[in-house]
Structure formats: structure tokens, C-alpha cells
Amino acid sequence: MNRPLSSATIIAALLLAAWYLVRAALDRAPNRADLIAVAALGALVTVLALVAVAGLFDGSRPSDTATFAGYLFTTVAFAPAAAWLARMEPTRWGSLILGVGCLVLPVLVLRLQQIASVTGA
Q1: Which of 50, 52, 75, 83 is most buried, with most CB under 10 Å away?
Q2: Which residue pairs from 16-19 have beta carbons closer than 8 angstroms and sit at least 24 positions apart in sequence?
């Protein structure tokens, strides 16, 4: 796992989570810019996943490749799923969905780092 890219992903997700939770508290629905920001976060997560997959081919694999692949798939799919659900709920709850989604992403990235660090991947 690329530590600087992982850190950037975690920081971006936490900043967006704070923004969306404040918007939910202020009774604001997600707007187009909010959905674009989640799409940008999803792109950052996708780049992180591609770097992680490329790291699997350099010879250092995690001890449990299946678990690593499951977390990787979930991490990539999480931001688009949150954006899709928030788009279906055009109220303050859509902002809450985005906020919670952005809070879960750092946990998934940290878990990927833990699994990868077992063998130094």
C-alpha cells in the first residue's frame, strides 16, 4: 500500500465527512458540487486500489489475499454506492448518507493497510 496516497485518501474522506455532516445538521440536501466531490473521492480511491493491485504483482502478497481483495472491492464500491443512495434521497438525509459513507472509507483504507502490512505489501 502506498502510504502517502492512503493518507491523502483518509484526509480527503474525513474532510468531506465533516462537510456533509455539517450540511445534514443545517438541513441541506446534497447538491451537484457535493456529488462531484464524492466522485473525485471515488476516483482517488480507485487510484489507490490500482496501486494496491499493482503491488500484488511485485511478489509481496498479503497473508490473506482473498480478504485483501474483498476489502479492496468494498473500498472502491463504497463511494459510488453512497453517491447513488444520496442521489435517490434529495433531502438532508442524502447529506447524512454521504457523511457516513465518507466516515467509513478511512476505516476501510486503514484495514487495507493492516492486511497489506502483514507481509509488507
Answers
A1: 52
A2: 16/41, 16/98, 16/99, 16/102, 17/99, 17/100, 17/102, 17/103, 18/99, 19/99
Mean local confidence (pLDDT), 53-68: 81
34: enclosing H helix or E strand: helix 32-56
Q: pTM for the full model?
A: 0.88
* For residue 16, pLDDT beyond 60: yes
CA distance 102 to 89: 16
DSSP-assigned states of every residue in 67-83: HHHHHHHHHHHHHHHHH
Q: Is 61 a residue whose pLDDT tops 90?
A: no
Give the start-to-end residue ranges of the domains of the chain: 3-117
